[in-house]
Amino acid sequence: QVQLVESGGGLVQAGGSLRLSCAASGRTFSSYSMGWFRQAPGKEREFVAVISRTAGITYYADSVKGRFTISRDNAKNTMYLQMNSLKPEDTAVYYCAADHRGRVAVASYEYDYWGQGTQVTVSS
Asked: What does each C-alpha distance from 34 to 29, 47, 111, 116 come to in angstroms?
C-alpha cells in the first residue's frame, strides 16, 4: 500500500509556472506507475499525465502537451509536475495517483491509490 500527499498548488497569473510534488510513503514507490489528474468545478476528473516506473515512458493529455512535464525521483519517493505557461482553464484540483500494476494508463479507474489533491488557480 502507498499513501500519497500532493503539495505545491497555489494562485498564479496566466503565463506563470508552478511545480507540484507528490510524496509517497513506503519502500515500493518505484514499483508503481504514477499519474496526475485534475478536476475543475462542475467537471469530471480528467487525465493530465502519466509516468512509468522508471520514467522511461511519459504521456500527456493534448491540453497540456508542451507546457507540462511529469517526472519522478524514485530515490526520494516523489513525483513532480512542472507546469509552465499556465492558462485559466488549468484551474482545478490536481491529484496524484498510483497504479501498482505499472501500466501507463489514462483512465482514473486504473489507479489504486490517490492523494487528497492540491488546488491550482490561474488568474487571467
From this structure: 9, 12, 8, 15
pLDDT tens-digit readout, 88-121: 999 999 999 999 999 999 999 999 999 999 999 9
Q: How many percent of the chain have pLDDT more than 70? A: 100
What gap in Å lies between CA 65 and CA 60, rounded to an integer? Answer: 6
Give CA–CA dist 15/64, Å, rounded.
13
Question: Pairing mode, if any, of strands 118-123 and 10-13?
Answer: parallel
